[in-house]
Amino acid sequence: DAYLSAIEAANPAFNAYVSVTPEKARAMAKASDERLAAGKAGALEGIPLGIKDLFATEGDHTQACSHILDGFKPRYESTVSQNLWNDGAVQLGKLNMDEFAMGSSNETSYYGPVVNPWRATGSDEKLVPGGSSGGSAAAVAAHLCAGATATDTGGSIRQPAAFTGTVGIKPTYGRCSRWGIAAFASSLDQAGPIARDVRDCAIMLKSMASTDPKDTTSVDLPVPDYEASLGQSVKGMKIGIPKEYRVDGMPAEVETLWQQGIAWLKDAGAEIVDISLPHTKYALPAYYIVAPAEASSNLARYDGVRYGLRVDGRDIADMYEKTRAAGFGKEVKRRIMIGTYVLSAGYYDAYYIRAQKVRTLIKRDFEQAFHAGVDAILTPATPSSAFAIGDKELAADPVKMYLNDIFTVTVNMAGLPGLSVPAGLDSKGLPLGLQLIGKPFEEETLFNTAHVIE
Ligand code: GLN
């Protein structure tokens, strides 16, 4: 009830929820009370959570914040959300996001932008919460849920976490089932939690992760007790600092924060080593070929026949065209066009195959660093703090917007786990995050190391 009232009072200002589910919340909370009374509490018993609108939740608004899914209410539940309910968590509602998770500012949602609960010191200017999981991050930061589900294809958990002073982890590809999550780029998409601190994130991920016969890319590995490994010494751990992440135009404050993070880990006994990830500079262009290619294929299913919106036409082809023209927003259309182009005969080898080769090289860079004994890699999470909603420069140039993902996309391209932890405020009083990148399926190392920084 406290969370539902907080949402009622604050959501008009932040627009973090696109749908609140009070009846479900109360019924789930009541069932939790009964289990608690019977001494049968789950790991998340009674904990109120928000769910990103990309996850199917049975009978509820599930539209990936797109117009094309108008009125769609699935009859099934995503594996990740079901796992949370199996552990006793309570659903508050569905969270705003960039349309089909395409964006870095939560400004592409059909339901309008999310407002970051943070403001620069002495300013009333409204800032973005980052994207695409902007609703998840803002809701957690504003205490409108105790934790939230999110997804990350190129940074959509870590960048909004960094912009809102929250903790977010993109687990290793395959750690969480993608079943019941609207697909953006299937070889890059992963679900993960956004929460207020590292411990909450660790607890949530343990519930979210599972092997799932309905997603053949989910791995058959036991899920460790991430919380139990928190607080272990980082003494003797090797932390890699990649020189390629020192990019042109990065504010000095971001560099200072990075140095601060290095100092904290050194003080805690970790060994700091300089490393090189030479193909980093190709990650962003390769990502913006691979991700739109997969998106153009995944989004072919929204045709006015199977789900959501239908705009009638003269014949079926005309109906498809009118539905897709009216149903998709500008950024989604841009991705579909880029993706269709790079997959088309004549361009496939030059763009798509080439990007896949670059992807292998990026993966190999990381493998070499880990092979040389590095346990985790420390970088900034984003090249800046949160920017203004409606920033003219970014709106006019999509490539500038894509630069937000410069430190995060490499991790998805390599399938590795990446975590963003708040590490301080910049001179405007806005949160900045540091990113930890780990070996496949070693999320514990990231939680434990982040716990030293937070
Ligand atoms: N900002 C990136 C994009 O727009 C990443 C999005 C995401 O991780 N879902 O593609």
Describe it.
Helix content is 38%, strand content 14%. It is of the alpha/beta class. It has a domain at 2-6 and 13-226: Amidase signature (AS) enzymes, CATH 3.90.1300.10. Strand 2, helix 3 and strand 3 form a beta-alpha-beta unit. The protein starts with a helix and ends with a helix.
Number-wise, the strands total 11
CATH superfamily of the domain at 2-6 and 13-226: Amidase signature (AS) domain
CATH topology value of the domain at 2-6 and 13-226: Amidase signature (AS) enzymes
- The secondary-structure element order is HEHEHEHEHEEHEHEHHHHEHHHEEH
For the biggest β-sheet, the strand order reads 1-3-2-4-6-5-10-11-9-7-8
Helix content: 25-40%
How many helices?
15
Structural class based on helices, strands and sheet pairing: alpha/beta
Subunit structure: Heterotrimer of A, B and C subunits.
Protein name: Glutamyl-tRNA(Gln) amidotransferase subunit A
Catalytic activity: L-glutamyl-tRNA(Gln) + L-glutamine + ATP + H2O = L-glutaminyl-tRNA(Gln) + L-glutamate + ADP + phosphate + H(+)
Organism: Gellertiella hungarica
Task: Give the SSE map.
Layout: H1 2-14, E1 17-20, H2 22-37, E2 48-52, H3 79-86, E3 90-95, H4 134-141, E4 147-152, H5 158-164, E5 167-170, E6 190-195, H6 198-208, E7 238-242, H7 252-267, E8 271-275, H8 283-298, H9 316-327, H10 330-343, H11 348-371, E9 376-380, H12 392-396, H13 398-402, H14 409-414, E10 418-425, E11 431-438, H15 443-453
Parallel strand pairs: 2-3, 2-4, 7-8, 7-9
Antiparallel strand pairs: 1-3, 4-6, 5-6, 5-10, 9-11, 10-11
Helix pairs in contact: 4-5, 6-15, 8-10, 8-11
